[in-house]
Design brief:
The protein is of the alpha/beta class. 24% of the residues lie in helices and 17% in strands. It has a domain of 216 residues: P-loop containing nucleotide triphosphate hydrolases (Rossmann fold, 3-Layer(aba) Sandwich). It is built from 11 helices and 17 strands. α7 runs parallel beside α8.
Length: 411
Amino acid sequence: MNDSNTTPSSDELKWEGFVGEENLPASKATESPAAAVEAPPLVSSAPGQETSGEIDFGETTMISGGKQVPSFLMKGSPQAASSKTSKAPKPLTKALDITRALTETPKPRDFALPCLRAGTVGGLVSPGGAGKSMLAAQLALMVATGLDTIPGLRQQTGWDKVATGPVLYASFEDGAEDAAARLHSIWSALGPHVDAQSIKTAVANLTVETLTGEGIPDLLDSGEWADWFGAACAGKRLVMIDTLRMAHLGDENDSGAMARLLGVMQNAAITSGAAILFLHHISKGAALSGQGASQQAARGSSVITDNARGQFFLSSMSEEEANANDQGTLFDISAPDPLRSIPIYETEADGRPLRSRYVRFGVAKSNYSAPWPDIWLRRDNNGVLSCARLAPRGGQPAQAPKKGRSGTIQA
């Protein structure tokens, strides 16, 4: 030890309460220079009670300069926060009122889209390049404005009851310019059916978010992206995620990770009341076998389909479908000339197979309603979709082929 007249260095000090308080009695602790800076005020005893000569300062924490201080002095410590009133944690589950469930007639189910209830999560699954992003954008505009943005769709079963409300389209695959070009193509195709009021309604109800390039979306991060998603869903009628693969950094074949991802979406749907529709690709096997319309066509873990409450599909017309009709050669009698006069199985003037313009839109899974009939859609030169009416010349419209249990086509 140093001489009593020499001030010891910080390296020579030993811990016995506060830095530099070696050999000091407890009653003199507050006289230490270090104590004047680092120590809390001593707590007086209550009237009629005596304090002990020793103070328990608990665990110590190293701070800048090698000094040690009691952990309760550190910001954010449990002891430091103990004086604040803590809020009770929110309940994780909700007990069902059995009496009410058994005796009260439930409210009618609210569907944001046919087979997709408000407050639930569903998917739209297709091969790449089939037109699902265009279809999703047209559906977003339909819900936002109330217009028949896929001409003829609102005359189809179930689609006539689609209500108008606020919509969020999270376009994670396309930049702002591509997203704007797609919307412009849709709006231009509507022609005389839109006016200044339609634009005001679209501006009020439709939000399209695109990436800035500053961060990669990851709804599994339990941080800024999960928080963004929960806040973005608030007040929305419909939320679209384009695409599921672009919304997370997990392994889509990992059932645990996909269960958590669907759980994040489901929690946001329940909290906000929005219907959430994610866009997703089919597996290579489903594409090669022509089973894109089957329930298990989605790429990755089966949890993606199993945990979704509804699943739409979009599949390109096959050669079999172009010829599957007992009444004669199929034409699109709703198409503009000259497409109207070309048999579906033939090619256009530029050599492109006419059937490549056509996609089948339907429901592969529905937990809360009966599936709606499949619908044929036709793509124009800009990719904008409208309902097609396939039939022999002068005949009745042909029904889309029925799907077997495996997803195969039954003519």
